[in-house]
Amino acid sequence: MCKKCWSLVTILLLLIAAGAYKFLIQGSTVPASDGRVAIQLSTGERDLVLSEMRAFLASVQQITTGTANEEMARVAASARQVGLAAQQGVPGTLMGKLPLEFKKLGFDTHTRFDQLALDAEQLGDPGHSLTQLADLMQNCVACHAAYRFEVEQR
């Protein structure tokens, strides 16, 4: 009897480990034809992620204009709009489909925008903000080089 119980526990633990790997680390991904990783999302999920990326781009434009015109309040406000608070509305089902490295890049990007906002307010140095933005943009380049989104086939 005990041998059956241990076998059942072992099988359940393996299933839990496989599920954790799938949803926490791998996500819903397949190799893409262009060498990147294709993240498989529903149409709504894809639209949400692409909308967030467009918000990043709009903020980058505002930050660039703000630094050029030494309008540090504009820089801070634009950066803060896409900081960590912006990701609060992301559904858990979507997070489960994203691979771990993508989530790390996204979290780091939001955090860097928050730091840029804070430094813009406290330091008021356009050159520093522009350097931070250049460093932050490396995340965008890395993400776009590594991933693409596809609508999952049902």
Automatic annotation (TrEMBL):
Name the UniProt record assigns to this protein: Cytochrome C
InterPro entries from the UniProt entry: Cyt_c/b562 (IPR010980)
GO molecular function, one term: iron ion binding
Taxonomic classification: Bacteria, Pseudomonadati, Pseudomonadota, Gammaproteobacteria, sulfur-oxidizing symbionts
Superkingdom per UniProt: Bacteria
Organism whose genome encodes this protein: endosymbiont of Ridgeia piscesae
GO terms classed as biological process: electron transport chain
SUPFAM superfamilies documented for this protein: Cytochromes
